[in-house]
Specification:
The complex is a heterodimer of chains A (815) and B (91). Chain A contains 43 helices and no strands. Chain A is elongated and about 160 Å long. Among the domains of chain A are: 3-110, Serine Threonine Protein Phosphatase 5, Tetratricopeptide repeat (Alpha Horseshoe); 670-776. Chain B is mostly helical. Chain B is globular. Chain B has one domain (10-88). The longest helix of chain B is centred in the first third of the chain and has 14 residues, at 10-23. The chains are: A mainly alpha (815), B mainly alpha (91). Chains A and B meet through helix 10, helix 14, helix 15, helix 17 and helix 19 of A and helix 3, helix 4 and helix 5 of B.
Chain lengths: 815, 91
């Protein structure tokens, strides 16, 4: 027997035997009044079937009306409408009587409860309970009840609705004042507004971050009540797992507006972390696909950070990138996002050291965005991208040649010309494109630096172009001055220097350049035997206040004595020496100056003075270092004197120690820098960061990897301390050496990148520990790492184009 | 962190920074202030914003740290977004 038959049998069994029409009518009306509409309808139908009387027909219609009303109360709108249509067909005379029920059914289904509310004012049980049940389920905005004119203003339900409206608006608009929820006490437990009361309490608890109380109130909301539709959203906002239809725009909008979507992301992110930890790319890709739509709710940078991070982790784990890239494509068939993904892949590759493959993706990105017009092919942004690409190409030419397994730049150039390698792997071409996009000083600086070691003439031409494009820039002029000086074109160099002085006379290099140029001119003339002209240059120099300050005058005196000696005036040279000795207080310093100058002209040094005390020797070397470094002249120091100074640094002043640190680097003697910085680190003064910087620089020239790691730590600490001391020159110097260390040929391109923690600033405690450790390191390391001969790769490395081609084909197809 | 659009100019960035500092003053929320400051330093002028747009963002060391980039806020948005969901979610 079917369920339906069972139910019918049960109803028939439940129906008492009919005795009279009066009894039947009374029985049906009693069942309707008690809400048992199904039984009432069965009984009325049975009586009508037996009698076919008008009275029975009226009763069966009443039973149908009650049944349809009950179905509406249960939310069975479609069933109720269908039943009303059926009854209208069977009893055409009563069709009009059923019309209001059908209309009401359709209105409720559309969310309009006004007719119900109007009926409520006069409704008696059980119709009243039916209406209240419908309201509980269908009242999706309590204002409909609060503003219903069909109810009296003081009707308890309308009063309660007003309280609910006010509190709902208040709780969603700001923190509720203490005791505000007491207004909800007028809403009884059985009221159709009771679920709203629970919702308001849950919202209040949510905003007070009392998540336990919020969840308890949400759990108490009947699942069929209208506010229950907000329960999954609130549970998500709290961070509770649960089903939520995120495809509904209103859900996304609400979550974004209230929380920014953070609670929805958490479980997925944790799943992704676990999948990556377990090297499970299938689950990871599926999770990425779940996460990406959620990130649409977030600001654009969040999605970019996520994508960059996933790509980075993916690459670190050496997982096949194709499924991930496919997932990123599927996420949004939006070409801007495709191009953006290409950029993020390029960044991932370059961060991993795969500069050649990164360049391919950068080039693809650049071509795509400029073609699409999202990035102008000219201007600052384009120039920055091209400059960035150029900077990815290693400065070490050997590394570039190694990467492409070619023996010379000519061979590399040939591969580029024939199209076997893309043009984007050539730094010079990239810089030229950057200059075309935006002739910015940064680009010119990079161009000049690029060509300086390859083709000085080309570097000079770029500096000249720079000067033309930026006539007020000092930098190209200084480069041209140096270039002219190197070529021996001192006259031109001095003319250029005049222009530089017109721009900035007090610039340190400008000031030093005039002395250096005149000195170089005088020295060249001495070598050429044009002594009168040399002495004239020296006369001009001695009129310059800067040239006679500090110890410079002694250097000029030494050069003059050489000129006099080479001119055959031996007694004159002796007189000059005596005059210098009488004016110069420190004979050891003077001896160092005279001997270095004499040596630079290939002359025998004068007789050495009496051995000085260790302190005097240290001071003499420190002064000489400062002088020769300032004048950019070679300082020749006898090895035994250097060894003595490195041994006897105890008691030297911090200033002298610092001069020796810098001088050691200038002379290419890292052992001196190491010893002086060690002595300086033992002092606690304002130069501490400078000593740490010098220690780092000395160690960066050490032979062993361990010592170079030490160098990196010292340099990072020095940079941090210099930053705190606002010594920006030291910050820049430390950064530059750190960069150079990072680019050392020993760091394999595919080596895992340094953990991010290592790149974070050192704390004060870490710096203090490092300084203590360096103070304890007295033994100088072995310096002068020899560069390993270039090893040929077993397999030539060519940029991996397949992934890129695949990607580009997709983008182009959609353009 | 600062809640600004990518096209924001210097003035808008500055205004957003000051608002964020008022929300996380250094004496009451030093960690929050540090993050606000870092965010501001990354976008304070056009050159930095350009660099961030072209060469950012830096990937995170931990994926779940992404949550830290999304503020744990519970914003009061008024009744309408809630009612929109109820009204729009018709069977």
């Amino acid at each position: 027997m079917s369920k339906r038959d069972n139910r019918a049998a049960a109803h028939h069994r439940a129906a008492p035997p009919v005795t009279s029409p009066q009894e039947s009518r009374a029985r049906v009306e009693s069942l309707i009044a008690s809400g048992k509409t199904r039984e009432a309808l069965d009984l009325a139908k049975q009586w009508f079937k037996e009698t076919r009387s008008a009275e029975a027909e009226a009763l069966v219609i009443a039973a149908y009306e009650a049944r349809i009303g009950a179905m509406l109360a249960q939310g069975l709108y479609a069933d109720a409408t269908a039943l009303a249509a059926l009854v209208g067909d069977r009893f055409p005379a009563h069709r009009q009587r059923l019309v209001p029920l059908v209309t009401q059914s359709r209105a409720i289904a559309a969310g309009d409860v006004r007719t119900l509310v109007a009926e409520l004012a006069a409704a008696a049980p059980p119709r009243r309970q039916e209406i209240e049940a419908i309201l509980m389920r269908e009242l999706r905005d309590p204002r409909l009840l609060a503003e219903a004119d069909t109810l009296a203003a003081d009707h308890p339900l309308r009063r309660a609705a007003r309280a609910v409206c006010d509190l709902f608006a208040a709780v969603t608009s700001g923190r509720l004042p203490e005791g505000a929820l007491a207004a909800l006490d007028q809403v009884p437990r059985h009221s159709p507004l009771a679920p709203w009361k629970l919702l308001i309490r849950a919202l209040d608890a949510y905003y007070r971050r009392a998540d336990g109380a919020a969840l308890a109130n949400l759990d108490a909301i009947p699942p069929r009540a209208a506010p229950a539709r907000l329960v999954p959203v609130l549970r998500h906002l709290i961070g509770e797992p649960g089903a939520l239809d995120q495809r509904l725009p209103a859900v996304g909008a609400l979550i974004k507006a209230v929380s920014g979507g953070r609670p929805m992301l958490r479980p997925h992110l944790l799943r992704l972390v676990r999948a990556l930890d377990g090297k499970d790319p299938g689950t990871a890709v599926a999770t990425v696909e779940r996460i990406l739509p959620l990130l649409e709710l977030e600001p654009a940078p969040v999605k970019r950070i996520f994508t960059a991070t996933v790509l980075r982790h993916w690459h670190r784990l050496n997982l096949n990138p194709k499924p991930l890239i496919e997932a990123l494509r599927r996420d949004r068939r939006d070409l801007d996002w495709q191009r953006e993904t290409q950029r993020l892949i390029a960044l991932t590759l370059e961060r991993s050291g795969a500069w050649d493959e990164a360049l391919i993706f950068w080039d693809g990105y650049f071509t795509a965005v400029t073609r699409a017009g999202t990035l102008s092919a000219t201007g600052r942004a384009a120039s920055r991208v091209l400059l960035h690409m150029a900077e990815l190409v290693p400065a070490d030419r050997e590394e570039v040649l190694d990467t492409f397994d070619v023996d010379s730049e000519q061979e590399l150039e040939a591969l580029i010309r024939t199209g076997e390698l893309p043009e984007c792997v050539d730094r010079g071409r990239l810089l030229a494109r950057a200059r075309e996009a935006d002739p910015d000083p940064r680009v010119f600086r990079a161009l000049v630096a690029h060509w300086e070691s390859r083709d000085p003439r080309r570097a000079e031409a770029e500096a000249e172009a720079w000067r033309q494009a930026h006539p007020r820039d000092l930098e190209p002029l200084l480069h041209l001055v140096r270039a002219s000086e190197r070529r021996g074109a001192h006259r031109k160099a001095l003319d250029l220097l005049d222009e530089a002085e017109a721009i900035n006379r007090v610039h340190p290099e400008v000031r030093q350049s005039r002395i250096r140029l005149l000195l170089a001119s005088a020295e060249r003339r001495i070598r050429e035997g044009r002594f009168a002209l040399a002495l004239a240059d020296l006369d001009r120099l001695e009129k310059d206040a800067a040239a006679t300050s500090g110890d410079t005058w002694a250097y000029l005196g030494a050069v003059r004595s050489v000129a006099t000696r080479r001119n055959g005036d031996g007694p004159g040279a002796v007189r000059l020496h005596e005059e210098l000795a009488s004016r110069f207080g420190n004979p050891t310093t003077l001896a160092l100056i005279l001997s270095s100058v004499a040596e630079s002209f290939g002359l025998d040094p004068p007789a050495a003075p009496e051995p000085a005390s260790p302190a005097e020797t240290v001071q003499a070397l420190a002064r000489s270092c400062d002088l020769f470094r300032t004048l950019d002249r070679p300082l020749a120091v006898p090895p035994e004197l250097l060894a003595r100074v490195e041994r006897d640094l105890g008691g030297a002043s911090p200033a002298d120690l610092h001069s020796l640190c810098v001088g050691g680097l200038y002379m290419g003697r890292p052992a001196l820098t190491y010893a002086a910085s060690g002595e300086g680190l033992a002092t606690d003064g304002p130069l501490l960061h400078r000593f740490l910087l010098a220690r780092g620089r000395a160690l960066s020239a050490a032979a062993s990897r361990r010592d170079r790691d030490r160098a990196g730590r010292c340099l990072r600490a020095a940079r941090e301390m210099a930053g705190r001391a606002r010594d920006m020159d030291a910050v820049r110097e430390a950064s530059s050496v750190i960069d150079a260390l990072g680019r050392s040929p020993e760091s394999a391109p595919w080596a895992p990148p340094a953990p991010v923690a290592d790149l974070e600033p050192l704390t004060t405690d870490e710096i203090a520990r490092l300084i203590s450790a360096e103070r304890a390191h007295r033994q100088a390391p072995t310096f002068g790492a020899e560069k390993a001969p270039r090893k040929r790769r077993r397999q030539p490395r060519r940029p991996q184009r397949d992934l890129f081609d695949d990607f580009l084909a997709f983008v182009e197809k959609n353009l | 962190m600062l809640g600004i659009e990518e096209t924001a100019d210097d003035e808008e960035v500055r205004a957003a920074y000051l608002t964020a500092v008022r929300r996380s003053p250094p004496d009451r929320d030093p960690e929050g202030f540090r993050r606000v400051r870092e965010a501001y330093e990354a976008v304070r002028d056009e050159e930095r914003r350009l660099a961030l747009r072209l060469f950012g963002p830096a990937p995170l060391d931990r994926l779940d740290a992404l949550l830290d980039t999304i503020p744990d806020e519970r914003r009061h948005v008024g009744p309408e977004p809630w009612l929109d969901l109820l009204r729009g979610d018709r069977p």
